[in-house]
Amino acid sequence: MQIERYETGKRMSQAVTCGGFVFLAGQVAIDAPGTSVREQTTNILARITRLLEGAGSNPTRILSATIWLADMSEFEEMNIVWDAWVPSGHAPARATVEAKLAGPEFTVEIGIIAAIGN
């Protein structure tokens, strides 16, 4: 079974494909640190879309999402952006938890597993 890695660094790859699936690393708003939850979520979802497309997938193919919030009181703000982004009829299995993230400038992190294909 072939394994492909995308945007590989010293510690991790941003995406890995294997067996018809793409696994994304947890994505944070590296282009919008310190901004609002809404802005960070928008930035992250754009990154996810780009990574999925680069691996031969798209948001309609997402099977599972895990969302980590630094503060669960921001749940509704994150969901405003999420709900507008998820294609109608294609909501994945999802979990959202509160957690301490890599740095105080990050308030949201999202990990994705998707099927490859259009």
Q: Can you characterise this structure?
A:
This protein is α+β, with helices and mostly antiparallel strands and 118 residues long. Helices cover 25% and strands 32% of the residues. It has one domain (3-115): 60s Ribosomal Protein L30, Chain: A (2-Layer Sandwich), CATH 3.30.1330. It has a 6-stranded mixed sheet, with helices on one face. β1 (3-8) and β2 form a beta hairpin. α1 packs parallel to α2 (75-85). The mean pLDDT is 97. Keywords: Plasmid. Belongs to the RutC family. It comes from Rhizobium leguminosarum.
Number of domains: 1
CATH class: Alpha Beta
Number of helices: 2
Fraction of residues in helix? 10-25%
Keywords: Plasmid
Family: Belongs to the RutC family.
Protein name: RutC family protein YoaB
InterPro entries: RidA_CS, RutC-like_sf, YjgF/YER057c/UK114, YoaB-like
Features:
118 residues, alpha+beta, 60s Ribosomal Protein L30, Chain: A, six-stranded mixed β-sheet, 2 helices, 25% helix, globular, plasmid, YjgF/YER057c/UK114, RutC family protein YoaB
Summarize the SSE layout with pairings.
Elements: E1 3-8, E2 13-18, E3 21-24, H1 37-54, E4 62-69, H2 75-85, E5 93-98, E6 108-115
Parallel strand pairs: 4-5
Antiparallel strand pairs: 1-2, 2-3, 3-6, 4-6
Helix pairs in contact: 1-2
Q: Summed up, what is this model?
A:
This protein is α+β, with helices and mostly antiparallel strands. Strand 1 (3-8) and strand 2 (13-18) form a beta hairpin. The chain has helices at 37-54, 75-85, and strands spanning 3-8, 13-18, 21-24, 62-69, 93-98, 108-115.
